User: Fold this.
Amino acid sequence: MSERRGLILKLTAGSALGAAALLSACGGGESQPQVLPSTVSSSPVAAGSAPESTIRITPTSTAERTIVPFVPTQAPTREITPTPARPADAFTPVVPAATSDKAVELDGKDQFVEVDATGMNIDNGFRLKADINLSDSFPLSGGDTIASIGDDEAFYARSLSTRCLGKVGALLDGQDVCTNVSLIAGQWYNYEFDFDGKSITFFINGQQVDQEVWVNGALKKVRGNVIIGRRPGLTNRAPLGGLVDNFQISTGSKTEVNLNFDNGFVDSSPNHRVVTPNSNPTLVNR
Assistant:
């Protein structure tokens, strides 16, 4: 057996080259080991002993490789009805049922339509719907009232209150309720306001755009007739300039008011309420 088989090699600081020479002397006719450029670092050792070394081999070159990004399989997309609202221009305009479909045109000044509300009780819940098309940008003088019921219930295409200015909103028992939706003039929208005694929900073109909790219980201030196109009184009337069609108020499964204007100013609900146009609003094709 060769004496070299039992040789133990221990490197000390500064001994890398010595190790190579020793291996060369012991190697005889065998192939010589390759010594690569290295970095030697010493760690603290006890006094009187030689520090041990760590040899870090630094490769002379690094082969480049290209990493192809992982692309996950595309999952099918779903359209989720957003709450709160999307921008108004994202809603699909309401298309009339036929070219002969009529709407009432209001001038944003003095014109409105009044509907007798005798016997109508909306205190514990109701739904108000209307198709609307605003004729101009938001007026500085006030909002656009789709309809009002007495002094304390109003439903706005563009609110006139400081907190809700220019947004779709409502006044319920004298309290402002807002959405973050602004409607664009010249487009048809379907406005819907739902009140169930516990919550208030707004829809635009069938899509829920806002919902708020109502903690005040039944309405306590409902009084007066339904006025389409403005609020009552001589001040703060917030008249609507534009077109209104398919106006409806219902309580549960009961229709209280139904005006589609195809047959003039006639309420086609079972109540056959008296309808009075004021200041000569006109009926036009949609």
